[in-house]
Amino acid sequence: MDDAVGACLARYAADPVDEAGETLIGLAVDGKTVRGSRTDGMAVHLLAAALHGCQTVIAQRRVVAMSNEIPAIAPLLDRLDLRGVVVTADATHTRRTHAEHVITAGGHYLLVVKGNQKKLRKQLRRLPWRGIPLQARTTGAGHGRREVRRRLRGHQPVARAGPPGATRPTRAEPLVVEALHHVGDVTYSEDACRVRTGTAARAMATLRNLAIGLMRQAGWTNIAAAVDHYRSRPQHATATLGLTA
């Protein structure tokens, strides 16, 4: 079901195009625990891959119980064509094996390096960042941390890696990681959903991804407003799916 829904949404998703006219696709990998599915102390944990431009999930895998996201990322990405894709992920996935997997598949990556990888962080700090002209600098705060983004003048299509707040080439700047699951939690109350029998929790998460993806591709930016619209006009929803009564 995940594969079918992801393939369907991927076919219709619009790809962002950079100023040079070349397609540059951002793909964010992130995990989410479906908290309401908890039984015997365990809850369903899903790893998803979503397109940056349209915030649409095009691949999803369940993380095996008593495991973590690390061994799940390769099977998640294996069904996707990564040529011309920039895979972004948090520090959990900043690993040599993951980077090599993406590069071997023809993609690129932007990964976060934190203090728990001291050797790599020191290597990155020694790079000549100050020698690259700075075009813009923005500062923000959220999720309990302060974030600094610097935009540099460069000609490479992507950066292979970068520490938090590190400089990145200009053409990679539009690829900003978005919160993948905010809409599911706020609009669909995913964490409050008590569905937990068999694979139902995962199936419901997939159906939520499908609904959100279709609404995004129909041009909606406010999913809560879209849900209200289609709830009172079900014929518009069926028309979106190409169905007629």
Give a summary of the structure in a few sentences.
The protein has about 240 residues and is α/β, with parallel strands linked by helices. The protein contains 8 helices and 7 strands, in the order H-E-E-E-H-E-H-E-H-E-E-H-H-H-H.
Q: Can you lay out the helices and strands and say which pair or pack?
A:
Layout: H1 2-12, E1 25-39, E2 42-51, E3 56-62, H2 73-78, E4 85-89, H3 96-104, E5 108-111, H4 118-125, E6 134-142, E7 145-152, H5 182-186, H6 200-217, H7 223-232, H8 234-240
Parallel strand pairs: 1-4, 4-5
Antiparallel strand pairs: 1-2, 2-3, 6-7
Helix pairs in contact: 1-6, 7-8
Shape: globular
Strand order of the largest sheet: 3-2-1-4-5
Oligomer: single chain
What does the average pLDDT come to? Answer: 80
Count of helical regions? 8
The total of beta strands comes to 7
Regions with pLDDT < 50 over 5+ consecutive residues? 155-163, 165-178
User: Nearest-angstrom radius of gyration?
Assistant: 19 Å
SSE topology string? HEEEHEHEHEEHHHH
Distance between termini? 25 Å
The proportion of residues forming helix, as a percent range, comes to: 25-40%
Backbone structural class: alpha/beta
Beta strand %: 15-25%
